[in-house]
Write the structure tokens for this entry.
Amino acid sequence: MINDLRHYLSQLIDVSDEEMNEFQRMEVIASYSKDTVLLREGEVSNKSYFVLKGCLRVYYLVDGEERTTAFYTERQAITPQCVVDGKPSAYHLVCVEDSVLVAATPEMENHFFTKFPKFETLCRVMAEKMLAVNQLSFDKYMISSPEERYLHLLETNKDLVNRVPQYHLASYIGIKPESLSRIRKRLAKK
Amino acid sequence: MINDLRHYLSQLIDVSDEEMNEFQRMEVIASYSKDTVLLREGEVSNKSYFVLKGCLRVYYLVDGEERTTAFYTERQAITPQCVVDGKPSAYHLVCVEDSVLVAATPEMENHFFTKFPKFETLCRVMAEKMLAVNQLSFDKYMISSPEERYLHLLETNKDLVNRVPQYHLASYIGIKPESLSRIRKRLAKK
DNA sequence: CGTATTTCTTAACCCTGATCAATGGATCAG
DNA sequence: CTGATCCATTGATCAGGGTTAAGAAATACG
């Protein structure tokens, strides 16, 4: 899997053997089986993740009900809010599939940034891009109806639709599984 | 206003006269009157903004109707997506009030980062924080009803409720002005 | 295989926000 | 002061998602 990481990074910047060896030494890559809980509501973790393989899901517990707000698949990164502010996490982070992840703490990152400064520039640029992308997704969500959100998912993320159960997707687009069923039926008639 | 900026920055890092003078030289601070359009849908701008005073609004045009997705007030920053990806902007950015803003291009930022590297670390950390905050707002929006969103606004951003017209707020929480009126009426009865 | 469990679909009825239309208040220009 | 415009409110009716309950389909597992 380290080669997947190298391949991904090499598309963004030049990476040396030395740098990749440092990744190896820090033992940041690990496998997690399906349903592994990476972060529980109320916990304070210091781990950020980058998905090399698999799929993660973020959900909140609202009146005992799971409300999914995000999925993370290959080449996506998540730094839980508790890593940034040190407060108990408001949500759960779990593996929807068997997954291979890069897991790093801020300390490990700083160690790495000091040794290889260009990675800090990379991370700043990536964070800015992710912020812009996230803002855009947020906007799209706000200006769309559930039906439009489902169609948008089909267009831009068909992969995800096939990988996760529909009741998770329903939650993700802000409705109940029954309603997603109805929407699918409506759309099929056209 | 440069002193407001200095005061803000000094809460985060040590700032020297030399650094503030560089800000002056770059002429990044400017005033904009109410209703000024900072960015139009379809345009490609290279300007990022930081609000020293006033209020900005982001909106999309959906079927000829304005759909507000964000407000930015004092000490908030916005890097429009077009600055990051160079594609035409999907939204409009306008001043809701007379505003004083820091406006910078990526070139100006890089110039500054090269001269004063600690600002790059500051910006990376801020981008990461903003990403976490934005993700959290997104989540909150997703798991809330319009009524809950309005109550949440009152709790966390009463200031904004008093500064912008209700039909903008209604759009922001995803409903029509008439519905916000009804929600307010419902709530008043309790 | 066959059974259990999980996931998806359907139906009836309810509730909230959308739509359309009208009204009243506030603000502003002349 | 007087329209004109903008904004907030109200009412009637409509559409779409929520709720509840049942059953069908798919999947897992002994």
